[in-house]
Amino acid sequence: MKRHLALAAALIAAFAFTMPTAEAGGRHHRGHISKEIKTAAIVTGAAATVAYFAINDWRWRWDNGSGLTSLGAYAATTLGCAAVSPMVATALVKRPLTMREGHVLVGSCVLPIIGGWLVNEAYNNNPQWEGGVAPAPHKRHHRRVAKK
Question: Domain residues for 74?
Fold first, then answer.
């Protein structure tokens, strides 16, 4: 029974972070991540979780006898997720991904459920990180020379 309650709580928490935030003053699409990108993150994250537990023969306690530790299995499945999720997302959106989208996907693999959200908020707070945005040109101050 405890497992079912824990699973239900985890699913509720996962879907709570996918809900859009409230914004006063109309709709602003700053930092909007498309449904296809979210779908790719959820599908590849779930596949990495399945692979993690499959490595340990579906046992909760880590003792598979192969010499691979829990941390090693987490690292391997995280790297696999980070490699595959941009490929899946690119196939779903049918265009090249932006830097933000790629980093959100990798963040979702490293820290499930909230990693992608944290990366997206970091991009929102630092617009200079966007790949396609050119920085404002520096104004040059010319010294006026007096005419003789």
Answer: 33-124
